[in-house]
Amino acid sequence: MIIYGTALLAVCHLLGIFIGDLLGQALGVKTNVGGVGIAMLLLIFARLYMQKNHKLPKLTELGVEYWGALYIPVVVAMAAQQDMVAALRGGPVAVLSAIAAVAVCAVVIAVINRSERPADAPVSAPMLHDNPLLTEAE
């Protein structure tokens, strides 16, 4: 069943690359525009749709979650490297705007974290499998 999660990721990736190529052609550039991001959105929407309609078995959901968790950091690292190279070649304005964007994000995250109210009672973490060997301490 986990392989179905991999298959769903592959289908979403291929569709995202195809749509990104079409979007690039529509904008008049000879490159893929946002194909990987579109693929991730397709994966999220497909998973939510399948969960809502009870067509997503638990093992398939675990496969989708695994590849989604692995996929996002790789894509972010690739994009960050490309953006950094382009920024350094673009001159000081591009570098300053990147630094400003990171600073604004840090400030917004700090404001959001400070505005959260602490939970009244701690919520226990959900368990993926019921394991009789893992019971609470007596």
Automatic annotation (TrEMBL):
Pfam families with a match to the protein in the record: MadL (PF03817)
Residue intervals passing through the bilayer: 7-27, 33-50, 62-81, 93-112
Keywords (A to Z) from UniProt: Membrane, Transmembrane, Transmembrane helix
Record InterPro entries: Maln_transptMadL (IPR004690)
NCBIfam families tied to this protein: malonate_madL
Protein's UniProt name: Malonate transporter MadL subunit
Natural source organism: Variovorax soli
